[in-house]
Structures are given as structure tokens and as C-alpha cells.
């Protein structure tokens, strides 16, 4: 081959290589554009996820605070319930004691009332006997006048 032919061959090869490189660059550019587009979408999704994650963290902190408050309220309620139960138990014990004492006092009062009833009955009988005896006496013996000789 001659020098001119070699030169033409080199030119043709350079042109073919240039065309191949250009076509390859085009394909790479299209792929890079597609990758850039995908990256943009991924970045947008990532930003959205970060915003939602931040919102979730804030909600978590709020829920945790609310839960802590609820636990405090429940602890306080539990304490009050315990106090009420203890007070109720003590009141029941006192009521049992007082009920026993009251039953004892009622029994004592019943005995006193029985005794009083017997005595009162005896007094009424004696009074009836005296009234009957008085009614059976003649008037002048039953109703003496002062200063009169009897």
C-alpha cells in the first residue's frame, strides 16, 4: 500500500472510530440522563421519606410524653384506690367492732328494759291494789279532814 492509501485508510478508520465513539457517547449520555432522572426521583423520594421520618419522630415524642402523663395519672389513681381500699378496710373493721359493741349494749339495754318492765309492772300492780283498797274504804276513812277527831 501506498502512503496515500494508508492515509485514506487511517482517515476512514478515524472516521469510523469517531462515529463509533460518538454513537457510544450518545448512548452513554442517554443512559446518564436516565440515571440522572432516576437519581432526581430517588432524591425526591428520600426527601419525602426524611420529612415523614421527622414527623414520625415528632409523633413518637408526643406519644411518649402522653404515655408518660397517662402512666402518672394511672399511678396517682392507683395510689388513691389503694388509700380508699385501706380506708374501706379500716372502716369495715371499725364497723364490725362497733357492731359487736352495739349488740352488747343492745343486749344490756334489753336486760335493763326487762328489769324495768318487771319493776314497772310491780309498781302498777301495787298502785292498782292501793287504788282498789282506797276505793273499798269508806269515804270518811279515805278522806279525813284535818283537825277532825278520828
Characterise this structure.
This protein is mainly α. The protein is 92% helix and 0% strand. The protein has two helices and no strands. The termini are far apart.
What layout of secondary structure does this protein have?
Layout: H1 3-136, H2 139-142
Structural key phrases:
150 residues, mainly alpha, single chain
Short description:
This protein has 150 residues and is mainly alpha-helical. The protein has helices spanning 3-136, 139-142. It is 92% helix and 0% strand.
Low-pLDDT residue intervals, each spanning 5 or more residues: none
General shape: rod-shaped
Quote the distance from N terminus to C terminus: 198 Å
Order of helices and strands: HH
In total, the number of strands is 0
On the 0-100 scale, what is the average pLDDT?
Answer: 92
Briefly note the structural class of the backbone.
mainly alpha
Number of helices: 2
Radius of gyration: 61 Å
Sheet with most strands = none
Name the helicity range.
over 70%
Share of β-strand residues: under 5%
Amino acid at each position: 500500500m501506498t502512503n496515500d492509501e494508508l492515509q485514506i485508510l487511517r482517515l476512514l478508520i478515524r472516521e469510523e472510530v469517531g462515529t463509533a465513539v460518538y454513537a457510544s457517547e450518545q448512548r452513554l449520555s442517554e443512559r446518564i440522563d436516565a440515571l440522572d432522572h432516576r437519581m432526581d426521583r430517588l432524591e425526591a423520594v428520600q426527601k419525602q421519606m426524611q420529612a415523614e421520618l421527622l414527623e414520625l419522630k415528632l409523633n413518637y415524642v408526643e406519644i411518649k410524653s402522653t404515655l408518660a402523663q397517662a402512666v402518672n395519672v394511672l399511678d396517682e389513681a392507683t395510689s388513691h384506690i389503694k388509700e380508699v381500699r385501706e380506708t374501706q378496710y379500716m372502716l369495715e373493721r371499725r364497723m364490725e367492732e362497733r357492731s359487736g359493741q352495739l349488740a352488747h349494749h343492745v343486749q344490756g339495754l334489753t336486760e335493763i328494759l326487762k328489769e324495768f318492765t318487771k319493776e314497772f309492772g310491780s309498781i302498777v300492780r301495787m298502785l292498782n291494789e292501793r287504788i282498789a283498797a282506797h276505793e273499798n274504804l269508806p269515804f270518811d276513812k279515805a278522806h279525813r279532814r284535818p283537825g277532825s277527831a278520828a
